[in-house]
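Continuing the series of single-chain predictions for the mutant panel. This is the parent chain; the variants come on the following pages.
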Amino acid sequence: MAHELLRKSPNSMASVVSSKPSRLMTRRRLAAMPKLPKRDDEFMQRLERAEATNRQLREAIDMLPQGVVVLDSEGRYVLWNQQYADIYKKSADLFEIGVRLEDTLRIGVARGDYPEARGREEQWIAERVRRLYQPKERHEQWISDGRCILIDERLTTDGGVVGLRVDISELKEREASFRMLFEANPVPMFVARREDKVILSANRAAIRHYGFALEDLRTKTLFDLHHPADHQNLESLYDGRADQFAGQTWRHLKADATSIDVAIYASSITQGQTPAILFAAIDITERKAAEAKVAYLAHHDALTGLANRVFLRKRLDEMLASRKRSGAGVAVLCIDLDNFKIINDSMGHAAGDSLLQQLSERIQGTLRKDDIAARLGGDEFAVVLANANHAVEVSSVAQRIIDVLREPFRVDDQTINVTTSVGIALCPSDGEEAEVLLKNADLALYQAKGDGKGCYRYFEAEMNVRVQARRKIEADLHQAFLNGGLEIHYQPLVSLSSREVSGFEALLRWPHPERGYIPPSEFIPIAEECGLIGSITDFVLQRACHDAARWPKKARLAVNMSPQRFRIGNVFNAVSDALRSSGLEPSRLELEITEALLLENSESVLTILHAIRSLGVRISMDDFGTGYSSLSYLRMFPFDKIKIDGSFVRGIGFGNESQAIIRAIMGLGSSLGMTITAEGIETESEQEFLRAVGCDEGQGFLYSKARPVTEVPELLDMLNQQSQFRLV
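Parent structure:
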């Protein structure tokens, strides 16, 4: 039927030719025409020139990238190029000069070439023909192979039609991808008209996040989304210079007037024929808050909220720079709690943290607006006082800090009392650089602790000399330990009833190459502070056990255990390893501990002591009577021995008080089945009194000072010969 329509057209297929063979047909017709007289040569020349012009026009049309078609006033094909035929390749066999476009459309619809016509074929054809002769704007046409063709048609002066066809399939795919990315994007996105910044569309994320209905957004401009404070820069932001504001934070207002921080990324697009702006607004409110928190934590102590060392140093540098211009004084105070570790270990870290938080609040409460307090770590704090022009003012602040921290604290329903030491350095007298002032304030703090704690001290130049000397001692101690420069001497323990040697106490000695023997009372605290005491204690334990294994079987060995060694841990393993490697019987080893150890963390320590005692090792309490809760500790743990501190022994000849205390200890020890040893016996009268009241053992210079291990055999022979008793 469709082909029948083509055959019935005014110009039959036999009488019309396609646009491409038209040149051949023209030549044949000219050749068949009778020869013209010479006077018609001019006509022939014009005809050939017209043919050449037509040929050039044809070639030009074929070179165009668009499909081109020319129709006469009745809608019949006059001319078309190859691009047009390629676009409609499924219907190209129908294109002939003189054939009506409407007829080719109808055949194409019947073939299924135009999916938009399916189910409404005649209506679709009628609309297409109407658009052909009443062209208003470009329109799109989908064809069956999935391509989209943009049609642009114009009427000629004689009523014909010139049409352009452009395959915009790729563009439509990009638009579809854009729509998908735009609508499904989790980031709020908007499209606004470039001319007046009116919002044309918004994706679902924008509608959901901002709380506006799409209809409401279309009544707003981009400026309406911004906080008024941003308005002065918005023209630059949205006119193509957005890269100038990369990284800048803007403030947007949501439907409920909530302000949010956003990062904006804008670019130019075309929506339809309209120049537009596509922009994404990424809500960075939470990120900004997180960044602010990170910045805060980078400069503040997480536990107390005070400035940390980094921020204190920064502010101190700023104050010192300002001081050079203004001449105002600056003071640095280093603050340290006295015996905080005992509280932390005995009550637990949570209680210690609570105490530090309360301490920080009190310190902060003593300061002025321009002053700054910082936590340097552990229980170390620092305060920088601005405009500290008078020492009396600085002293007042230091004393106020000491006083306010001396007031009782409540932690876990317990009352805690602490004391504080403060060291002070002044600028410019004690230094004009932050590091120097902090160092000198720390030196003054060290002096305050050495002067009895609970006080403040100003920096003095001599302090640095003392500290340097101490640091040299510390370095020498490390070197001596590594190079075997420490010695173990042994002081005998003598039975007062039989006057026989019952054992030896191992005592550490340090023969310094320049200073001679340094007293343990001087270097042991240094070893504890610099973290060397654990290694030294294990060294003494191992060496002494190996030495004692070569003595007569009934000679016992006593070794002091520093409280610091228990804090390090693995005490049980250290003791059992020393016994195993030396072969010493556990019953011959006696560990001496002080009351300070039980004061720190009695429950944990008692557990360890019970485990060690289960090996057969004896446990004795050293320096009995000098601590806080001696009697309660005797009830908590079944000590094998009590050692009476030498201060009581030395007081025997000066009054009845020491004698009464010793008698009380004798009675206590006897009732509990504990051995009593008296330290520091130097005279016969002291020995006789102790023997008379029932003391079991004695130790002191009356018998011997501590001697090197090489002299122990000789010492044993000498003491037993003097006593005329055999070794027990």
